[in-house]
Amino acid sequence: MSHAIKRILDGNAVASRIKEQLAPRIAKLAERGVTPCLATILVGDDPSSATYVRMKGNACKRLGIKSIRVDLPASTTTEELIDAIGQLNEDKAVHGILLQHPVPHHIDERAAFEAIAIEKDVDGVTTLGFAQNAFGYADYPSCTPAAIMAILAHYELPVRGRHAVVIGRSPILGKPVSAMLLNADATVTTCHSRTENLADLVRLADIVIAAVGKPNFVQGGWIKPGAVVLDAGYNPGNVGDVDYEACLAKASAITPVPAGVGPVTIATLLKHTVDAAEKFGA
Amino acid sequence: MSHAIKRILDGNAVASRIKEQLAPRIAKLAERGVTPCLATILVGDDPSSATYVRMKGNACKRLGIKSIRVDLPASTTTEELIDAIGQLNEDKAVHGILLQHPVPHHIDERAAFEAIAIEKDVDGVTTLGFAQNAFGYADYPSCTPAAIMAILAHYELPVRGRHAVVIGRSPILGKPVSAMLLNADATVTTCHSRTENLADLVRLADIVIAAVGKPNFVQGGWIKPGAVVLDAGYNPGNVGDVDYEACLAKASAITPVPAGVGPVTIATLLKHTVDAAEKFGA
After folding, report:
1. Residues B172 and B72 in one domain
2. Nearest residue to B25 (alpha-carbon basis) of B280, B281, B278
3. CB distance from A128 to chain B under 8 Å?
4. Chosen from A189, A200, A206 to mutate, greatest number of chain B CBs within 10 A
5. How confident is the model over B71-114, as pLDDT tens digits?
6. In angstroms, what separates the C-alpha of A256 from chain B's closest C-alpha?
7. CA distance to partner chain A, nearest, from residue B145 (Å)
8. Is A156 at the interface with chain B, CB within 8 A?
9. For residue B11, pLDDT beyond 70
10. What is the ipTM of this complex?
């Protein structure tokens, strides 16, 4: 029986480290008269989305980043949303633009994402931003995938040559995190709703990324002893995609929910906004 | 012992079918006074590249597609190459642009690829073209990955839910074919030079894509009985990436080299050129 110490990967610690490194950069920008500014667009009144947006706004405030919030009614059309994005693209005081996902079903979300100017796409949602990331030279990789890579790096968990199994293939999570792990020299298997024998595949993984959007989906019996488990899920009630206690029993390291990937995602968003302000700040 | 018939996947047959479907479209364009035109740029005097370019030119000619060949010396700079691409971008009579890979080492190939206008990127080499493909809505996916998908479709080999193992992660082959297989609902594992236990992973595959660029690299002992093997290799001397006889003994279906993926790649390039001429032909 192994007596290895279980490592709970502390997202708050990783986020704090990222924010500490931002503080002097923000001070330096202030000397030049530049305040980094993130504009967040929220369409409709989904309560969880409103919570995330508020959390992001508070995180900006605490760090001295300006946040602008654009609230649009649920009845907003794709064209109206694209117009609103266009105005933020034009606004020189805005360095980053975040369109809170998901938008109401009648809106063409992909078209709206594409309307974000690449130099303000701090959440890495545009098609071009995705591909730059897949080719390993993006300025702003999608924030949740980048947060997952930051946690692995912070805890010096090896990636090169390891087999990573990603459960999920969304354009803002499963696909970009698969690309980033591949670029970091992992062997990457991307699974999804059509995957057969999912449990058997996950059992092969040295690194498991849960990005499926189903509460407590990943079972303890799927985890190879000693694997690293990262839970990018954010289901209602602060529940992850991983059956935490069961997976904790098998894993060598695991992220909890809350206080795992979530806070690092927000810190990454702030970092990208500061990056953008340094590059394009007037 | 299994008596299943081995299927040799005939690339010439698939290519012929694609070209047959192009003939009436080219005739219709002619009525409008439009001749589809592919411009190919060859830098330096690599003999295999010269052969590929000649084969593509001949294939165009036989079908009534105009081909322009731009030969540049090995000493061409990145800037000069980009200038040459810019001229072809401006030329309304040119519908598709192909930069023959590889270019000499001193040239920034990625920068040159990016200089190709997206609407003329019939080989799917731009970053934006790659991402559109990864998101499932590209006009012109990279030709070799598209050829692999065309062979699977032609022979009605099932992809959904199957486990595909791709060996290779280049931006024009391994990465886009992984994306296309994923979008076709395969579970996809992408392997590469840093992969540990490669043979064990390939043994899991229902579909094996060899895109590694090493002659006879994939061994018969790596193939699960009944797997489908597609060889995208094109090594000197017309040798594939797969040890053909050994893998043939295990596979249910396999592409030979030559007369496998190669001719379908060329037919796909012609198809994309005709697509572009229909869209943008004056």
Report:
1. no
2. B278
3. yes
4. A189
5. 999 999 999 999 999 999 999 999 999 999 999 999 999 999 99
6. 27
7. 16
8. no
9. yes
10. 0.93
Residue B19 lies in a domain: no
Tens digit of each residue's pLDDT (9 = 90 or more) over A222-264:
999 999 999 999 888 889 999 999 999 999 999 999 999 999 9
A123 is catalytic: yes
Please tell me whether residues B111 and B149 are part of one structural domain. no
Residues of B with Cβ-Cβ distance to A182 under 8 angstroms: 169, 175, 190, 192
The whole-number average pLDDT for the span B205-215 is 97
- Inform me whether the C-beta atom of residue B135 falls under 8 Å from chain A C-beta atoms: yes
Q: Which domain holds residue B159?
A: 143-261
> Which residue in the block uniquely carries the two structure tokens 């093997």?
B229
Do residue A87 and residue A186 come from a single domain? no
Residues in chain A predicted with pLDDT less than 70, given as ranges, are 1-4, 282
Q: Looking at the structure, do residues A96 and A165 belong to the same domain, yes or no? A: no
Establish if B113 touches chain A: CB-CB under 8 angstroms: no
Domain count, chain B: 2
Q: Tell whether residue B168 is among the known ligand binding residues.
A: yes
If asked whether residues A149 and A82 sit together in one domain, one would say no
**B192 within domain boundaries:** yes
Decide if B163 contacts B202 (C-beta within 8 A).
no
Q: Which of A127, A162, A188 is opposite residue B131, by nearest beta carbon?
A: A127
User: Measured over all CA atoms, what is the biggest interatomic distance in chain B, rounded to whole angstroms?
Assistant: 61
Let me know if A75 is exposed, middle or buried by CB neighbors in 10 A (0-12, 13-18, 19+): exposed
Give pLDDT, residue A116: 98
Report the phi/psi class of residue A275: left, alpha or beta, with left for phi > 0 and alpha for psi in -120 to 50. alpha
